[in-house]
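Wed. Picked up where I left off yesterday with Alpha-hydroxy-acid oxidizing protein. The coffee machine is broken again, so keeping this brief.
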Amino acid sequence: DDIAKALAVGADLVSIGRAWGYGNAAAGEKGVLRVLDILDGELSLAMGQLGATSVPALDRSFVEYPEAWHGAGMHREPEPAEAVEAPGELTP
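Structure written out below (tokens, as returned):
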């Protein structure tokens, strides 16, 4: 499940892409609510299969990276973001 994977690698929020649009086109607000219900069920199922009892329990230990990624530099821990100066505080 993509939602579980995103949360496990540290996402604070997950986009549901076009799914809500399909639900809206099919049945309006009720369709969107149905899509959200389906996605919630899929997340619950994935968490149950992983043995995660809550969303905060999902972490990187639940994600396996293909062996090929390890030697190719494609898998690395996130780096801290660099500080960005506010526009009013730019230095010459």
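Quick read: The CA atoms of residues 85 and 91 lie 9 Å apart.
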